[in-house]
Amino acid sequence: MAITKSEALFKEAVQYIPGGVNSPVRAFGSIGSTPRFIKKADKALMWDEDDNEYIDFIGSWGPMILGHNHPLVLDAVLEYAKRGLSYGAATSIEVDMAKLVCSMVPSIDMVRMVNSGTEAVMSAVRVARGFTRRDKIIKFNGCYHGHSDALLVKAGSGVMTAGVPDSLGVPAGCTADTVTADYNSLESVQDCFDRYGEQIAAIIVEPVGANMGTVPPKPGFLQGLRDICDKYGSLLIFDEVITGFRMQADGAQGHFGVTPDLTTFGKIIGAGMPVGAYGGRREIMEMVSPVGAVYQAGTLSGNPVAMAAGIAQLTYLKEHPEVYTKLNKTADSFFSELQKIVDESGRGYQVNHICSLGSMFCTTQEVYDYETAKTSDTKAYADYCNYMQNHGIYLAPAQFEAMFISAAHTQEQLAQTLETARNYFKNN
Ligand SMILES: *Cc1c(COP(=O)(O)O)cnc(C)c1O
């Protein structure tokens, strides 16, 4: 049988790039197949090098909330690209971006732009430690906060899928001050504080777990974290790299009505360009250099073309709150329908969802943390995912990732996706 262009490219790629990819989840290892090499995308569709068409449910892992190729974003990028790609000097567009973020997220008085979610989180943690003059941080099992050393402890996402919770090359000293607790368990958080109390600089949390599959917080969980931080003088950091500007304009913190001290962004904030940001209360952010003594820098941070893309998308979202109302309603009915299809199949699988994020876990157990997520039958997910991909539905190639619905998905595309899932369960 002739090999596909994607297969040929992958063979070549593995010679020159570790695993053939620049980020592990793209390797399709956890569904036992080879990656589709994508050549272009538009709205909710993507095409691979073999001209297969897909309805895209990852949206670049979140940024494409308005779909690929949104004309406002594209125009902004083209316009700014003509002015020179980067200057390494202050620009007015950085002020525009900072004002926009502060206007959309009330807990943020000041914001610093960086180039990825990883950088945003790493920097926010440093600021929290500098501000509190404490070293320990609490993170949750199954939450992913990028690949910086201190946070690669029982991380979710690609690390979890590979079944290797920690990474080689991270000195024990780097994680010695990282304490882990169980998601959705205030008891386990209290245990950490009982043990380390006023040594804890911050709790960092994904306000909706989205890197062990989609795991929403139980009622009261986030507020409980806020209360315990207040009690011990620790900071609360919401990692809103996925939830920020997705659940609603002011993210998970607006949705749940819980105010963090620091927030990290990525993904949507750059509309597909490499952008991250962290921000929070003025007194905390004024710890950052050159005002304060917490050092953080970036040659390409606040890059004008990247800012232009992000601003175009965020401005549209700010001015059109109805996008969220409609998207969240559409996603609600999509995921309820998917749960129905799964129920009819008699397999007892769980569909978790909140707003436009969701996951089908191949387990009969309710999924509310890392341990329960891990009860999923990843082989069963792989089988389902390969079928869907072979039938034009591009799902996350791993059980422990979310499905992202965008405002560009049409009712027809969503109906076609559900029909494909129904056929899978009928025939397999
Ligand atoms: C993706 C992600 C990160 C890391 O962002 P990168 O841009 O990949 O470095 C951090 N936190 C969360 C919650 C994420 O989903």
Automatic annotation (TrEMBL):
Pfam families: Aminotran_3. Its cofactor is pyridoxal 5'-phosphate. It catalyses: (S)-4-amino-5-oxopentanoate = 5-aminolevulinate. It is found in: Cytoplasm. It is an enzyme of class 5 (isomerase). GO terms for cellular component: cytoplasm. One of its GO terms (biological process) is protoporphyrinogen IX biosynthetic process. Its main location: cytoplasm. One of its GO terms (molecular function) is pyridoxal phosphate binding. The keyword Isomerase applies. Its EC number is 5.4.3.8. It comes from the Bacteria. Keywords: Cytoplasm, Isomerase, Porphyrin biosynthesis, Pyridoxal phosphate. The modification N6-(pyridoxal phosphate)lysine is found at K267. Pathway: Porphyrin-containing compound metabolism; protoporphyrin-IX biosynthesis; 5-aminolevulinate from L-glutamyl-tRNA(Glu): step 2/2. HAMAP family: HemL_aminotrans_3. Belongs to the class-III pyridoxal-phosphate-dependent aminotransferase family. HemL subfamily. Homodimer. This is Glutamate-1-semialdehyde 2,1-aminomutase.
